[in-house]
Amino acid sequence: MARGLRAFFRKRASIEQAYILLLLIVAISVVTTIVNRRFVNPTNIINIFQQIAVLGIVASGVGMLLVSGHVDISVGSQVSLLGVIFAMLIQRILGLPEGNVAPWRQTFVYPIAFVVTFGIGALVGFANGVTVVKSRANSFIISLGFMSAYHGLALLVTGGASYMLFGRFETLGRGRLFHYLPISILFFLGVVFLSYLILKYFRYGRFLYAIGSNRRAAHVSGINTDRVVIRAYTVVGILNALAAIILISRVGSALATTGDAYALDALASVIVGGVALSGGKGGALNIFLGVVLIGLIGNALIIMNVNPYARDLVIGLIIIAAVTLSQLSESRS
Amino acid sequence: MKKFGMTILVMFLVVLFVITAIGVAAEKTYTVGVVIPYEIGWFTAFHKGFEQIANKEGVKIVWQYHNYKADEETKAIQNLITMGVDAINLTAVTPSSAEYSCRLANEANIPIQITESGIAEGKGKPVADIDFNWFDVYRTVATSLRRDIPGELKVVWIQGFAGTPPVMQGIQGFMDTIKTLEGISLATDVQYGDYATAPSLNIIKTLVQSGLEFNVAIGACQEITEGIIQGLREENVDLDKVTIVTVNGGPMDVENVKKGYIDYILSLSPGLHGMICAQNLINYLKGREYQKKSYSPIVWCSKADWEEKLIPWFLDESWFPVVEEFARTGQYKPELRAK
Asked: Does the pLDDT value for residue B81 go beyond 60?
């Protein structure tokens, strides 16, 4: 009975959070449309989704991990590192900019680049997970260390240079389905849908909630908490590899800092989306709405021609408002 | 006889000592400490240029980084002082932090050269200040645009990090200049793309979506310009109707100008800048002619003449005579390049 009530209120809180986010999204959209009607232009809406695609993929991983009560703030450095590895492989294997290489290189370059990038992504996530689990240290501190380590590794690998794709491999980041819908959006929505299924219907998702709510109780009830947490970190690494590939395909070049900004943006999106920092609460839909809100604010402020110096202030205030409203509604429920 | 022998021996020893001393003096290996923000993009090329000249001159380098944090800069300077380097080259965080770093170096009697950041008034004094005149960089952009393109110019301009000295000086230089010119104005506030492609791409697309009318787009570095080009292409904007200007001339810009996307480049070379900084400081150390205050070269290039005028980011040994001449006289003479 008590468990049923708790579940009901948790669900209600989650729904309320979604309402709050939707309300904010609608309010910002209405205000922006009043100022500049072009905001609701379908092309602009598609642009917003294209702009948040990479952030959304990173945030989905971070969000699922945070449900288990663990944080990974090294995601930005991971995206940077995986991005430069991916771009470097393509540039080196294809011998760009000349590109006069043997046909087998042309054939195998992308499979090799994909396998290596995803492999290293999984490895990086696994390393984070194992370290967090085995050290028993705070995941924030461990991932802070990894953030610096991956940043340094990206610098070592590149020697500070940038790697360009010279117009190769543009489909994933720049391509459009039926010349209209950016392919990156499909990946973003696909990842969100997959996160939704995992968190709602899969045993693994329920384990994440259980560990986030009470790790000790989860362990006592027979869940291999260490394995689940390591797996969650590995998933973050794999999603970061996907995000890095899409990002590099979109911008056409990679630096050791290309993805750095995603760490805080992803965490902000996830927290705005109502995932508790302590874990055990949150959902894929809310994470999605959090990402949309963050992307929407940035777009709306430019469309409304708000002074660039005031933008960060407005973004900060809206994030504070969203989190405060959700906390108040949660404490009421 | 004994006395004579002793005298000869003493004289021989004195001569030997003098020769050894001269030899040691001639062979003295200088060590220069170089402080830069980090090792990415622009500063990678700066690093390489500085190193090429140091190798040529047989000077050792110790690298330190500050990540645009003033306290890290102070730490780096203190580390170099502790190490006992012969001279310091500093790309400072701000003009004020540069002044304080100079104060620390002055107290330790280590010559310090400031590069690229300027220096505030104060007790700390550098032996030399090699800069890019950021006011002049964007003054040149404004006047060259006005000279080369007829009609009304509505400019969209994406800059790097808001509030940093080069950015703020550049904006002031541009704004002051367009007040004196007819028919050139900003279509909207200066935007900030953090020297990166993705944010610049998003900004330009959103500006197009907002219905903003403009016919000139300026990117403050190659990554920003790449974002501008990509964004305009994605929005199906006719690139013939927008004049694209880049303030850089890096490898990405070279690719884009080859494709015909870029109309003008204000060429600034971090590689040449690094070479000039190294040569100037080494000239000071070795008692040669050097520049107390100078500005590294900037060159306005168009689609038509960029191959001939653009200063590459990464330079080879053929540029050494150009660098030596600049450090000696402050004159940029590309015609001196070794054939």
From this structure: yes
Quick check: A159 and B39 CB within 8 A? yes
CA-CA-CA-CA dihedral for A280, A286, A290, A291, to nearest 10: 100
Query: At how many degrees (to 10) do helices A225-251 and B222-234 cross?
Result: 80
- Of residues A54, A160, A298, nearest to B43 (C-beta): A160
Nearest CB among B39, B188, B198 relative to A305 is that of B188
Q: How far apart are CA B66 and CA B72, in angstroms?
A: 5
Q: Which two tokens stand for residue B135?
A: 């006011």
Nearest-angstrom CA–CA distance, B287 and A285: 69
**Helix H segments across B58-116?**
70-83, 95-107
B69-78 pLDDT per residue, tens:
878 898 889 9
Question: Any chain B CB within 8 A of the CB of A244?
Answer: no
Which residues of A are less than 8 Å from B208 in CB distance? none
Burial category of B50 from C-beta neighbours within 10 Å (exposed 0-12, middle 13-18, buried 19 and up): buried
Let me know: does B89 contact B75? Beta carbons within 8 Å.
Answer: no
pTM of the model: 0.80
**Helix axes of A225-251 and A42-67: crossing angle, nearest 10 degrees:** 160
Cβ-defined contact of B205 to A251 (cutoff 8 Å): no
Cis preceding-peptide flag for A97 (omega within 30 of 0): yes
